[in-house]
Amino acid sequence: MNHIFPTYQQYPMEIVSGHDWHLTDNNGQTYLDFTSGIGVCSFGYSNTWIEQRVINQLGKIWHTSNLYPSQLQDEVASLLCPKDMLAFFCNSGTEANEAAFKLARKYTGKQQVLAFKNGFHGRTFGSMSLTGNPSIQTGYTPLVPGVQFADYNDDQAIKQINENLAAVILEVIQGEGGVYAGDPDWLHAVSQKCQQEGVLLIVDEVQTGIGRTGTKFAYEQFEMKPDIITSAKALGNGLPIGAMIGKKELATAFGPGAHGTTFGGNKLALAAAKAVLEQLTPTFLATVQQKSQVVFKEITTKLTPLEAVASVSGQGLMIGIHLKDQVKVADVIAKLQAAGLLTLPANHNTLRLLPPLVMSEADLLLGIDKIAIILEKMGSKVHSEAE
Ligand SMILES: *Cc1c(COP(=O)(O)O)cnc(C)c1O
Known about the structure:
Helix content: 25-40%
Largest sheet: 7 strands, mixed
Number of strands: 17
Bound molecules: pyridoxal-5'-phosphate
Low-confidence stretches: none
CATH class of the largest domain: Alpha Beta
CATH architecture of the largest domain: 3-Layer(aba) Sandwich
CATH topology of the largest domain: Aspartate Aminotransferase, domain 2
Number of helices: 12
């Protein structure tokens, strides 16, 4: 890759084709996919319903400016948004969070936003400034001012929520941070305090949303009342699309000229999103929950007892296997690749699993078995270094 900035430490192979939840690289090796990109291709790599919708749209028109209304945008918004909420379409997760940050400031007339350590909201300046991970911010100062951080799942954070804040932003499960789930009581308390103090609650569902945790949005499983929800990753199953979803009354601050985007809401990505959301039915979500139960049962039996494993976390098909320090997640990922399984890292030496939601139960269990075999072998390291 002589012509590309080396911003990614890349694996040695290129993925050249995919079918269902199987991928093939440029050497002809095939893999079972426990990544979905990074939580993107939840309906796999050959979903004909999505493919046909995109191909049909490709034959009609690809792009119109947002100066013209789009029936497709309205249809996708109606499928996507909870009751009494509106959507702003953009192209990525970071853009969705930028829109949320801007809207929160403009609507409230306040500047301060509370975010959480170990959180991740994206790489553009606003979203990066909300990201509680110094390694992502190093070298880019000055960041956007007015952002405070608190510890996730810490009661002290509740006290920091007061009427001087425009918004609080959080993930219900910190994905990049290592698949750390919010405590139900704590999430409820954050939401309640935001309401009491008139602070907008922004829930970043970029990774947790669109069925990943077994419901359309993860916050639905908690007693939370978000004012703004952000979505991206799986929304277009691989075509770039993001959405900032906010309560209707916020529209007074997002009138004509307040925000904009050339490509956001483009018809190809929207055709894909519509086809994704049409398939995200209660019946489909029930299959995700069912698969999740089977997978977590298998993980508890086969992975939790292993020497290499410190703990396991997650919800739905968003899973974190927290490895002991002696067992490096990068080594585990490389060994699993050689064994024909693609997996992801996350912070704090976490092996992150985000399989396509459509994967068969049999292949989900096969993947867990592959991980068990590799981790079993690597567990000897924990032993030898402990002695
Ligand atoms: C991936 C991610 C983002 C950023 O999305 P991009 O499309 O890469 O800009 C934001 N928030 C969360 C929680 C994410 O997982």
